[in-house]
């Protein structure tokens, strides 16, 4: 009899444990279902548009934005500023004005006026000096009153370097006496000087005249 009661007690205990285990499993499944439903409901609320009433009585729809959402920041490449620094060339386009450079020649017998001083095209180191020679007192001119243009020189204002005439590139000699005998009051002449292209102003020395100072060289 005692053995039978003991067996029944063990059987009851096992049945109770089995029922408790079944109950725990069912509760766990119910909890998982509730969590899944809660997550789905939260996502649906974030995606559903919100309706709001405006001041004029109409409704407006707004999209719900999830909290703590930071809009993406577009990466803007740095702007490169071009270098606009330029090297300024010497001002060498100054033209000579009429009457700007005039000097007497052979005292008061004649006069020389510079007409144009510019670089020869295609030869940047060569300067063409154009001038006009006038006879002021033909009655006192003599045979020796002749201007030898290939003896013309120029001097650098900064370095005092001297630049000479190009051989064979000049009018040659201009004679005041010959101009008198031909009843010619003026004659145009020229001479080429070899002056570096970096030089923009020079002093010019023509034989038997005073210096033409700070003469600009045009291109």
Poorly predicted ranges: 62-67, 80-92
State the end-to-end distance: 139 Å
- In the CATH scheme, the class of the domain at 102-216 would be Mainly Beta
Q: Care to count the β-strands?
A: 12
* CATH fold-level label of the domain at 102-216: Immunoglobulin-like
* Main pleated sheet: 8 strands, antiparallel
Overall geometric form: rod-shaped
Radius of gyration: 55 Å
Which class do the helix and strand fractions yield? alpha+beta
- Proportion in β-strands: 25-35%
* Biggest sheet strand line-up: 3-4-5-10-8-7-11-12
- Helices and strands, in order, run as HEEEEEEEEEHEEE
Which CATH-level-2 architecture of the domain at 102-216?
A: Sandwich
Helix segment count? 2
Look at the structure and give the mean pLDDT: 78
**What's the helical proportion of residues?**
10-25%
Which terms summarize this structure?
219 residues; alpha+beta; Immunoglobulin-like; two-stranded antiparallel sheet; 2 helices; 24% helix
Description of the molecule:
With 219 residues, the protein is α+β, with helices and mostly antiparallel strands. It has a domain at 102-216: Sandwich (Immunoglobulin-like). Helices cover 24% and strands 34% of the residues. It contains two helices and twelve strands; from the N terminus they run H-E-E-E-E-E-E-E-E-E-H-E-E-E. The protein has helices at 2-47, 176-181, and strands at 50-53, 59-62, 102-105, 110-120, 123-135, 146-148, 153-156, 162-170, 173-175, 186-194, 201-205, 212-216. It has an eight-stranded antiparallel β-sheet with strand order 3-4-5-10-8-7-11-12. Strands 1-2 form a two-stranded antiparallel sheet. Strands 6-9 form a two-stranded antiparallel sheet. It is rod-shaped, with a radius of gyration of 55 Å. It starts with a helix and ends with a strand.
